[in-house]
Amino acid sequence: MRVLRCGSLVALSVCAAACGDERPPLCPEAYFDGELPVAATTVSTADIQAVTAHTTSNAGGVTVDIVGGQGTVSYEGRGPIPAFIFSTIPWPLIDRTLFAGLGVKDGVWYPFWLYCSDDGRLTEFDGEMTDRDVAVLTSLEGTCVLTRVDAPFTIPAHSLRNVALSCGFTVTAPVGARALDLGSSRAGSADIGAGRSAVVLPFHTVDCRECGSPGWYELHALVADPGTQWAAFVVYYLDDPGSVSAGNGFQLPNAAPYADFYRGAVWELIR
Q1: Which whole-number Å values give the CA distances from 145 to 121, 122, 128, in the listed order?
Q2: Whole-angstrom Cα distance, residue 200 to residue 220?
Q3: At residue 215, does pLDDT exceed 90?
Q4: pLDDT given at position 22
Q5: Residue 206: helix, strand or coil by DSSP?
C-alpha cells in the first residue's frame, strides 16, 4: 500500500484525520543526475539498537527480518534489503516505540520505521526510498522484542544514484549565518561545519501542519560530501520561523547519529 504520510511521529488515526482526502499535486519527476560515493563502513554493536523484529503476515508486501538490530526488510516489490536499526524513539502517547532503520543497497538507501507495542507486537511499518518521492505506511502483524546485539558488521562501499528531488519549499540562510540553501526539484547545499559544504537532496516531504498545535513540516534528505565519500540521511524540521533543525539521522562511514541546527534560517512552503 503506497500512501503519503502525515508525519513519522503521529499516530495512524491522527494521520488519517489530519490528512483527509485531499492531496497536494504531485511534484514533477526530477532527479539528481550525479553519483554520490559512500565509503565502506564497519558498524559496531554500540552503533545499532538491540531489537529483534519479524513480520508474521505479508500485509502490503512488507516483510521484516531483523535480529539483534540487523537483518533485512522488503517493501514496494524491492528486497530483501540489508538493513539495520539506528535509533529508538519512545512514544508513550500511543503505547509504541519507534525503531528507525536504514536499508542500504548500491544505488539506493531505504529509511524505515518499525512501530512496536509495549507487549511485543510489530503493528505498523513506514518506509521510504531515496530514488522515489513516496512513502509506504501499512498496518501489519509481527513480533518486536528487545534483545542483545551479537556482532559488528560491514557495509560495503557503494554509490547513491538517481536521487529523487521533492518540491514545495524554499529554505535560505541570511548573510552571515551558516549556509543553508534548499529549494524545489533541485539539489541544495549546506554548511556542515569544519569548513565543509555538502550537497543536500530532499527526496521526500512530510506535511504535518494539521497534525498538532503547532504543526510542522519535514524534509527527508540525503546530505553528502562526495569528496570524502561521506553521506547521511536526515530529517529537516520546519516548525520554527526563525530556524531550521536537522535530526533523527544517521551518517556513513562514521556510523553515528546525524543532527544539526541552523539559527536564523527562513523557510517558505509553496504547496
Answers
A1: 8, 9, 23
A2: 10
A3: no
A4: 56
A5: strand
Residues 152, 41: Cα–Cα separation, whole Å: 10
| Of 142 and 148, the one with more pLDDT | 142
Cα-Cα-Cα-Cα dihedral sign, residues 231, 111, 80, 146: positive
User: Above 70 in pLDDT, residue 223?
Assistant: yes
Residue 148 grid coordinates: 542483545
Contact 111, 128 (CB under 8 A): yes
- Under 8 Å CB-to-CB from 155, ≥6 apart: which residues? 40, 41, 42, 43, 82, 104, 252, 253
Q: How many CB atoms lie within 10 A of CB 25?
A: 8
Kindly report the number of other CB atoms within 10 A of residue 59's CB atom.
16
**Angle at the Cα of 74 from the Cα atoms of 72 and 76, rounded to 5 degrees:** 160
pTM for the model: 0.91
Q: Is 162 left (phi over 0), alpha (psi -120 to 50) or beta?
A: left
* 162 within 8 A of 131, measured Cβ to Cβ: yes
Distance CA 2, CA 20 (A): 16
Q: Characterize the bridge pairing of strands 142-146 and 196-208.
A: unpaired
